[in-house]
């Protein structure tokens, strides 16, 4: 994120399976008319129809005034009217209080046909990119598991973001195994507790240092280790621009063959007047064979001139960026049919260590911290919310290296007598087989990076 709540979300991602509407022990409302979003190949689907994310990033107050917009039912319902006017189907929220009640807002969003992409981290409960082995502990996992437990019951929870901009340069790539380990643990938690297997993935920073390597890394290895999707923040299209001038044509080329759904977790350069010319490209067949839409940064103004509206108490005033975005969405339809998606999907090859940009020397992941194993089958326990003491220097860390396939619940909890490396609970792109390994070369274009303005995981000191 651009210097407000980007730092709130840091840590993990789920797995590489098609995400089925599995039985849940947390009952969603009985009259829900929302169809859960699933993964097929490298795309999202709503039933049998291709689903493209048309959304905004939504965190009124930002990092300076940490609040849970989904727990604020009045504010949520107020803003839903603007979401509908813009033609949105998705919002992204960077941080929630997992001890609060979210039923009223989530049901109102569902009634409006709007899905939620949720970051499971907070500033106090997240991975520390400079010291990930300490911050990857049982206290941290218990917190994010509690958040997942609360939101997996809602059919309109589209996805969980395991982390946001944890890796933002070459040296911080050393944290990648911990990001991926929590990915594995999150998948195990959902499966082990028979929760709906909500898609989970990672949101990468707006830097080209190692974005492709991170994308490959989150999609390589055994089925239990792989992500359900990959997203990245991209501010390289600054109006007036074009598909070629922005370098988006090269990104499509470089990601062609990637086996997971790919979308923009933040976009909307404000260097010049925002005309939102990129909307037409993003939802055209030039991109939909690889991309599944994106999330505009951001809904509410936080002092950085990215907001579409200004909120003052109960009053909301829209601006010219809001009007221009509404026009851009209104005149841009989704492609007919399946948008030329890759129905097969498939795993990537793990990237080879290449200092200084990619400093990961092994494909091995840390094992889940021993005290956290109980959460994989017995639930997360009490949610402490924003009042918790934090996790970065608490709890018990991992003390060993995991074997491949340890994301299988039985293997993780020590109840399996066999090798779990080939096991899977899913039926999607990664299910039950080892598909062709896809790789792609380094980016052929240098991105217009505004990383200096992106705090990333800066709250994670």
TrEMBL record:
It is an enzyme of class 2 (transferase). Keywords: Glycoprotein, GPI-anchor, Lipoprotein, Membrane, Signal, Transferase, Transmembrane, Transmembrane helix. Residues 334-345, 389-406 have a biased composition (Polar residues). Its EC number is 2.4.1.-. One of its GO terms (biological process) is fungal-type cell wall organization. GO terms for cellular component: plasma membrane; side of membrane. One of its GO terms (molecular function) is 1,3-beta-glucanosyltransferase activity. Belongs to the glycosyl hydrolase 72 family. This is 1,3-beta-glucanosyltransferase. Its main location: membrane. Residues 333-355, 386-428 are annotated as: Disordered. It is found in: Cell membrane. The chain crosses the membrane at residues 440-460. Residues 410-428 have a biased composition (Low complexity). Splits internally a 1,3-beta-glucan molecule and transfers the newly generated reducing end (the donor) to the non-reducing end of another 1,3-beta-glucan molecule (the acceptor) forming a 1,3-beta linkage, resulting in the elongation of 1,3-beta-glucan chains in the cell wall. Involved in cell wall morphogenesis. It is a lipid-anchor; GPI-anchor. Residues 1-23 form the signal peptide.
């Amino acid at each position: 994120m651009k210097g407000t709540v980007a730092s709130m979300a840091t840590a993990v991602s789920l797995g590489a399976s098609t995400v089925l509407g599995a039985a849940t022990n947390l009952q969603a409302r009985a009259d829900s008319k929302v169809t859960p979003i699933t993964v097929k190949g490298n795309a999202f689907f709503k039933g049998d129809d291709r689903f493209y994310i048309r959304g905004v990033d939504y965190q009124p107050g930002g990092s300076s005034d940490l609040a849970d917009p989904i727990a604020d039912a009045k504010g949520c319902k107020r803003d839903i009217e603007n979401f509908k006017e813009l033609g949105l189907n998705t919002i992204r929220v960077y941080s929630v209080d997992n001890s609060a009640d979210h039923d009223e807002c989530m049901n109102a969003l569902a009634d409006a046909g709007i899905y939620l992409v949720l970051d499971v981290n907070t500033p106090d409960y997240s991975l520390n990119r400079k010291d990930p082995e300490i911050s990857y502990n049982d206290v941290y996992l218990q917190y994010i598991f509690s958040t997942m437990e609360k939101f997996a019951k809602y059919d309109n929870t589209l996805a969980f973001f395991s982390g946001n901009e944890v890796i933002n340069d070459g040296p911080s790539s050393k944290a990648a195994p911990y990001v991926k380990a929590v990915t594995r643990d999150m998948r195990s938690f959902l499966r082990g507790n028979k929760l709906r297997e909500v898609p989970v993935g990672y949101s990468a920073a707006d830097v080209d240092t190692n974005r492709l390597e991170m994308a490959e890394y989150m999609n390589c290895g055994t089925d239990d280790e792989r992500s359900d999707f990959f997203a990245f923040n991209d501010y390289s299209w600054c109006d007036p621009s074009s598909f070629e001038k922005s370098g988006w044509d090269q990104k499509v080329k470089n990601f062609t063959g990637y086996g997971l759904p790919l979308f923009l977790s933040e976009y909307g350069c404000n260097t010049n007047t925002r005309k939102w010319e990129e909307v037409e490209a993003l939802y055209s067949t030039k991109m939909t064979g690889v991309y599944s839409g994106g999330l505009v940064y951001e809904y509410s103004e936080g002092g950085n001139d990215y907001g579409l509206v200004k909120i003052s108490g109960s009053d909301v005033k829209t601006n010219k960026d809001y009007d221009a975005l509404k026009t851009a969405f209104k005149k841009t339809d989704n492609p007919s049919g399946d948008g030329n998606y890759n129905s097969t999907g498939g795993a990537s090859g793990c990237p080879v260590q290449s200092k200084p940009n990619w400093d990961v020397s092994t494909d091995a992941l840390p094992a889940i911290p021993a005290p956290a194993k109980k959460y994989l089958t017995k639930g997360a326990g009490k949610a402490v919310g924003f009042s918790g003491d934090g996790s970065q220097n608490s709890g018990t860390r991992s003390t060993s290296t995991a074997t491949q396939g340890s994301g299988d619940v039985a293997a993780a909890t020590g109840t399996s007598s066999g090798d779990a490396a080939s096991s899977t609970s899913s039926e999607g792109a990664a299910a039950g087989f080892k598909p062709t390994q896809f790789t792609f070369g380094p980016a052929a274009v240098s991105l217009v990076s505004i990383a200096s303005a992106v705090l990333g995981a800066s709250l994670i000191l």
